[in-house]
Amino acid sequence: MSAEEIEAASLLSTVREPGDLRNLTAEQLDVLAAEIRDFLVAKVSRTGGHLGPNLGVVELTLALHRVFDSPKDRLLFDTGHQAYVHKIVSGRQDGFDLLRQRGGLTGYPSRAESEHDVIENSHASTALSYADGLAKAFALRGEPRHVVAVVGDGALTGGMCWEALNNIAAAKNPVVIVVNDNGRSYSPTIGGLADHLSNLRLNPSYEKVLDVVKDSLGRTPLVGPPLYEVLHAVKKGIKDAVAPQAMFEDLGIKYVGPVDGHDREAVESALRKAKNFGGPVIVHAVTRKGFGYRPAEEDEADCLHGPSSAFDIETGKLLAPASLKWTGVFADELVAIADERADIVGITAAMAEPTGIAKLMRKYPERTYDVGIAEQHAATSAAGLAIGGLHPVVAVYATFLNRAFDQVLLDVAMHRLPVTFVLDRAGVTGPDGPSHYGIWDMSVFGVVPGLRLAAPRDAQTVREELREAVSIEDGPTILRFPTGAVPADLPALRRVGGVDGFGGVDVLAEHERKDVLLVSVGAFAHLAVDAAARLAEQGYGVTVVDPRWVRPVPVELTGLAREHRLVVTVEDGVRTGGVGDAIAKALRDADVWVPLRDLGVPLAWHPHGSRNEILADLGLTAQDVARQVTEWVSRLDDQTPIAVPSGTRTRR
Ligand SMILES: Cc1ncc(C[n+]2csc(CCOP(=O)(O)OP(=O)(O)O)c2C)c(N)n1
Ligand SMILES: CC(=O)[C@@H](O)[C@H](O)COP(=O)(O)O
Ligand SMILES: [Mg+2]
Fold this sequence. Notes:
Pfam families: DXP_synthase_N, Transket_pyr, Transketolase_C. 41% of the residues lie in helices and 15% in strands. With 652 residues, the protein is an alpha/beta fold.
């Protein structure tokens, strides 16, 4: 049989919707689980994607769809990175060839893809709040529908989960919370809660003992039930001592478990109990991240949490050759600075390896803190560290700092505290889709008084600007750089104040007539220099500058703008409130009446795809920028000059 025929003959190919699962026998479900794992490994090995988390929830997802009736019942997946199995059994198998590729299947739940998807997430710790609201809505509307939220032990370290639990308990609606406890976020989950959960995990035998006692006593009708109650109370005491599920029960939420999350029948039985309970219930399912695929199970770093691209099935190793990444440059320099300065400490929000903080953690474990998926806490805890005389470096993805705006604004900036936030994956990211784009930071944090923001363009400026950032003592700094491989160093021809200039022309030369001041932000410097070269070939005089620090706007830029007919900015962030807007305002404030056009990411929800594809779609390529600039300059040529204050506009 050919590979296609084998695929067609599989059980998996007969499952087109969740209802199909309910007709299968136990044996067939076991075969199906194995087929799903093979399918996941085969598909993700070609596209990249979230592998380990999905391998761990195969049985759990099958059980959920057999016990609950989606879409009438609503299944919510916290973070959403573990929803591939849910996608597979809800009619989307065919989409996996283009998983996370432009125009293909998304990597997270998507309402456009399926009626079985309820929320479009990817940021952690939100599902319980959605579940609380949804259950309240069903109750108010008199709709007898179940709400089930699957949340990882990692996501449970996020504060929103606890705010939600507090409310779910008070509302008493029948919300089923499935804690998918694999003991890991990327690396092992940290914190007091994680320790509690692992106590529960490591002591599963008491549940079995309880069942044996119940069974045998239940057969002696007269003495059985009362004696059972006594024994149950004793047992509960023991259980509370070793396993603080009391924490949940004290809140008013019933606790069921722990149950082996790979024993589908056991999970189904726990879920049925929870479904029939009629109030809020936690089902504690213990799973193994990467289960059933050896390279994932044995991957100490993160159980193949999310290979970024194609990998070898035998070894689990990426096929793409290794390259120097922005993250690596930052990580090395941070360690070098920490070697020199004992006051430097690092903070990660459950992403030590992906943000590079792991390197500091290995060398200086006592000076590095993993706070869990808790970016808000990370910011304010950093404020505390700074008040205590240290200089914290908080390394998070740009998209995740959005939720800590108030903490950065008031707890750090208003106190004028020296905290450096390092934003990895800033700008257009790509395959993870709209919620992972790091395009808001320059707008959102641009309104924080006293905050300085740097956007390095290459490895050398990452090092340089990181050092500048940690030397600032009277307020917070942000250093932001994009995802992927760092480009070749682009040395400046000249530096005026803090502003770097490049190009084939005599950049930053005073009083020389020029057409365009092209202000490039961060990693767009190569693009800008390339665009300027194209424009120079057409006879335009272009000055390319990299302000390096874009907030506040360097004063040198206003002086430079005066020497040009047009200012064009190009940035890897939303145009609204971005660097272009900020420079336009600075020019207005300085009475510099030179027109400014800003290029960047339009304010919209952008689809998933590769970074380069998305940048090309947005016209953020050297060719597009050059074409756009020629159009603008020729329009300037066509226009009758309007009256402007004398001395602020240069004539051709
Ligand atoms: C607010 C936020 N911060 C960080 C992340 C990055 N992130 C994605 S998955 C993950 C670990 C999640 O662990 P867990 O919830 O236990 O799920 P598992 O992968 O173990 O199934 C992290 C930190 C995120 N998605 N959202
Ligand atoms: C679910 C999540 O938030 C992360 O796993 C994210 O997908 C990682 O992105 P990178 O691949 O850019 O590290
Ligand atoms: Mg986990």
